[in-house]
Amino acid sequence: MITRSVQTVQTNPDDIIDIRQKIAGSWQEILSQAVTNPQELLDILGLDQALLPGAVVGSQQFQLQVPHTYIARIRKGDPNDPLLRQVLPIGEEMVITPGFSFDPLGEKPKNSHRGILHKYQGRLLLMPTQLCGVNCRFCFRRHFPYEENTLNREEWLSAFDYIRSDTSVTEVILSGGDPLALNDNRLAWVVEELAKIPHLRRLRIHTRFPVVIPQRITKELLNWLTGTRLQPVMVIHCNHPDEVDADVADAMKLLRDHGVQLLNQSALLKGVNDDADVLIELSERLFSCGVMPYYLHLLDKVQGAAHFEVDEQRARQIMSGMSDQCSGYLIPRLARENAGASGKVVIAPLYSLKI
Ligand code: SF4
């Protein structure tokens, strides 16, 4: 009998970044090569040409944009793939639906200062860019006037002054667009300026980049994110377990190993994740990468996304199904945000939570 000695190779976690970038390219290259042409997406995925007219007309209102790193996780030839549904424009997006709005959260009145949304007590949103790693068809800001919120240097300084003048603000939330679409030099400067404001404690980043283009977790990003006195919290937006592949898991591990608190929020989407078993698997996979479930949002009622809506009764059934089968800490809080409200509303469970 032949016996082999097994050598354990210790890989420096930071080397994973280099290896990943060598294989897939830099995140900027991946982003610049994202598919924006509906015909190209259908061809890559071997999908029926009957989907083309809807994809073209939907993309005219809100452009298709999906990087190859995400397309690689979509099943070929399956028009009902849950990841595809999140990114492929369809004709129903053009249907005007009663009860849905172009500004579903009533954000315009809270956007009095350029680049800032101040709608919560004690915290505010800084929106540094209109760009995203992917354009999600259910996005509640698909009609948001980002062009009115792109900041030049003077406007950045003015935004910092605004935050400095309100000592009740302890947390700044970088939101979007997707804040990680900015380059690391700019983000490092922003965080440096924020850290000078004494009453700030935390920096929270809402982003879909680690899920869509995990190559975005660069050494430079880890440097500015963890080299500040502000406590870093990252809320990734992950909706389906198929989104969590090995690269995403590696990116999560790197962030965790560098001390970043990781949370997930999902949107509850018909035909994507409106199923207890799917959401349990999502929580399991994320937890195994060090990400805690945080919120499960009912759809924000934005025009163009009505076909994703799951009603509250069905949402409660799903939550109940999750509660029957998994530990309480794996269950996100079911929440909704009402237009003009000062925060999200957690929908009280009608089931007994097993912890
Ligand atoms: S990444 Fe976020 S902000 Fe960007 S399109 Fe998707 S949901 Fe909207």
From TrEMBL:
Residues 118-341 form the Radical SAM core domain. It catalyses: L-lysine = D-beta-lysine. CDD domains: Radical_SAM. Its cofactor is pyridoxal 5'-phosphate; [4Fe-4S] cluster. Keywords: 4Fe-4S, Iron, Iron-sulfur, Isomerase, Metal-binding, Pyridoxal phosphate, S-adenosyl-L-methionine. InterPro entries: Aldolase_TIM (IPR013785), EpmB (IPR022462), Lys_aminomutase/Glu_NH3_mut (IPR003739), rSAM (IPR007197), rSAM_sf (IPR058240). Belongs to the radical SAM superfamily. KamA family. PANTHER family: L-LYSINE 2,3-AMINOMUTASE, LYSINE 2,3-AMINOMUTASE-RELATED. This is L-lysine 2,3-aminomutase. The lineage of its organism: Bacteria, Pseudomonadati, Pseudomonadota, Gammaproteobacteria, Oceanospirillales. The gene is epmB.
